[in-house]
Write a structure and sequence with these properties.
The structure is a single chain. This protein is mainly beta and about 350 residues long. It has one domain: Methylamine Dehydrogenase, Chain H, CATH 2.130.10. It contains one helix and 33 strands. It has a five-stranded mixed β-sheet with strand order 1-27-28-29-30, with no helix packed on it. Strands 2-33-32-31 form a four-stranded antiparallel β-sheet, with no helix packed on it. A four-stranded antiparallel β-sheet has the order 3-4-5-6, with no helix packed on it. β25 and β26 form a beta hairpin. The longest helix is centred in the first third of the chain and has 10 residues. The two termini are about 20 Å apart.
């Protein structure tokens, strides 16, 4: 195997951040085992709304007790924990041996991934609920995170020093998507903001007509996002014009979309997972649950994994939307699943982190 293929395999075996990568597309090439079984659980004792990151056989996840937990991916054993001042709903970002995570205590933290030792913390003006993202400029990495102080913050990954900030008109809930040299995000001001990734300069602010609770996804030169006004949108990043709008009747979208080569998938508060044609926005299929689908779906190969507030995690066919498997946890699942190393990891509002995979030894 060449060095290139080895490096590619390492990338595919990890889920280092919210939605898997900087574009926030929620897609992995990893194929799950034919049968998913419960492998382990880790009891936190407080609701888990944070989605997990999985890197180097370790699972990183936050909880409402304000703690970031590092667990072994094989057994769920606790490796270390780090306490912040308030709840952690944000998904951790793992990059070059450092874990970056925001807290409702207004701080963005940088921790050593192997020990949990604090490297630096950066203060914003209000709570951070959305995940951090990153981009590389020259030879340095930068970390991007939105806050309820109405601002998108860009800081140096090594030092935590501010590089630039961009102020919007209201709270920023979701994570910024990064791609095509741009940063794309929405918020409670009802605008989809497009910034230059290097300078933070505004390239466009598109009024979508309602506030945006979740995150956008960037694929190619287009961005996809759902919002509170019962719609899913496709934006051309080159011309910053809307290419299509798909209506989801009486159903706000708190979920973030998954984007494949042909489909856009998103959960909604009509208790359904929706699948649209990526090119046209035409509906392809829906899958009905018994609760709102705020959990953001993940596409693994030819299957889709997501949770519902009916207390179940579902596995459905990407092509048809037909149910392939489900597991009843019993309490709301608002976190997005993380998929890597043959496992599906998801936290629940029952205060437990669950890992599913094959229990058979190879």
């Amino acid at each position: 195997m060449t060095k290139t293929l080895i490096a590619l395999s390492a990338v595919l075996a990890a889920w280092p951040m919210f939605r898997g990568g900087p574009g926030l597309t929620g897609v992995t090439a990893e194929h799950l085992p034919p049968a998913l079984e419960l492998r382990w659980t880790f009891k936190v004792g407080h609701p888990v709304k944070s989605s997990a990151a999985i890197v180097d056989h370790r699972v990183f996840v936050g909880a409402d007790d304000g703690t970031l937990y590092a667990l072994t991916a094989e057994t769920g054993q606790l490796l270390w924990s780090f306490k912040t001042g308030r709840s952690i709903e944000a998904t951790p970002l793992v990059l070059d041996g450092t874990v970056y995570v925001g807290s409702a205590d207004n701080y963005l933290y940088a921790l050593a991934a192997d020990t949990g030792t604090l490297r630096w913390k950066y203060q914003t003006g209000d709570k951070i609920l959305g995940a951090a993202n990153w981009c590389r400029v020259g030879t340095t990495n930068r970390i991007l995170v939105g806050s309820y102080d109405f601002k998108m913050h860009c800081v140096d990954a090594a030092t935590g020093q501010a590089v630039w900030t961009y102020e919007t008109g209201n709270y920023i809930n979701g994570a910024p998507a990064v791609g095509d040299g741009k940063v794309v995000f929405g918020g409670c001001d009802g605008q989809l903001h497009v910034l230059d990734a290097v300078t933070g300069r505004e390239l466009a602010a598109v009024d979508v007509g309602a506030y945006i609770p979740g995150s956008a996804a960037i694929a190619g030169h287009r961005a996809y996002v759902g919002h509170y006004g019962d719609e899913v949108l496709c934006l051309d990043l080159a011309g910053t014009n809307l290419l299509w709008r798909a209506k989801v009747d009486n159903a706000p979208c708190f979920s973030s979309p998954a984007v494949t080569e042909k489909q856009v998938l998103i959960g909604a508060r009509d208790k359904q997972l929706h699948c649209f044609d990526r090119a046209t926005g035409q509906p392809l299929w829906t899958f009905v649950t018994q609760g709102d689908v705020d959990s953001s779906p993940v596409v693994a190969g030819d299957q889709v994994i997501f949770g519902s507030s009916d207390g179940r995690i579902y596995r459905v066919s990407l092509a048809t939307g037909k149910q392939l498997w489900s597991y009843e946890i019993g309490k709301d699942l608002t976190a997005a699943p993380a998929v890597a190393e043959g496992e599906v990891v998801i936290g629940s509002e029952d205060g437990v982190v669950y890992a599913f995979g094959s229990t058979q030894k190879p």
